[in-house]
Each structure stands twice: as structure tokens, then as C-alpha cells.
Amino acid sequence: MYQITRKNRIKEQLQLCNADGSVGLTLDVDLDVDKVVMRVNKAYDALGEAQNALQKAPQSQEAMETYGKAFIAVLNVVFGEEGAKQLLEFYEGNYSELLLDIAPFLTDEIMPKIREASEARKAQLVDVARRVQKQNKRGIRDPRGRW
User: Which terminus of the chain, N or C, has less C-beta within 10 A?
Assistant: First the structure.
């Protein structure tokens, strides 16, 4: 039997605890890599640009707002709009604390998995292209003439 297993989803769960150790919020992360790669890369690029602008002008209100919006865009991609909203509510609008707490989860857990899954998908596509090309060289064609 030929068996295929889907590999293009990233599923994680994040629990945020209150100061007393009780679980205050649990968020599920369920990302379809094929759909999220471009969005997350775009959001991270915007975050990097905003961070650079903030480093150049750390007292600039505009730079701080741009950075905050870019960070929220990343949260929207990873957690969805509702999840991002719940995070902001849990942290009572304290963006600094939110950023410091969530950044390791994003950089150490989510982004490596997205990169890994994206690279695996690229390798699969290259492999398929090589197989089709190999079949073409041998004269093997799709009955409809598509290969």
C-alpha cells in the first residue's frame, strides 16, 4: 500500500500563566505552512524594518507605533486576529511585557518549524520536477500530453 502523510501543518499550544502560576490563557497555533509562509515572512520583514527605525530614533513616537503595529501583524499571522486580541487582553495592553514573553516562543518554536516545513516543501517540489524531467527524457508522457 502506498501511503502519504500530510506534513504541512504546524500545531502548537501556548499556555500563559498568571503571576500565581495558574493558567490564564491557552492559545492553539494551527498553521498551514503553504498559506502562512509568505504572510509570516512579510510580517517579519516589516518588524525588522520597524526595529531598525526604532533603533535609529528610540524616542520617536512614530517609530514606536510602527514597531507596535508590526509586532501585532506578526501575532495576527501566528495566532490569528482573535488570538492576538486575547494576548493583548491578557497582558492588559502592556506591549513590552507581551513582546518579551512571546518573542522566545516565536523565534525558538514557531519560526524554526515554519522554515523547516518550508524547506521540506521546496525539496519536495524540486524532487517532483526532477522526476517529471526524468520521465520526459525517457519519453514517458501523461496520456493527455501534459508532461
Answer: N
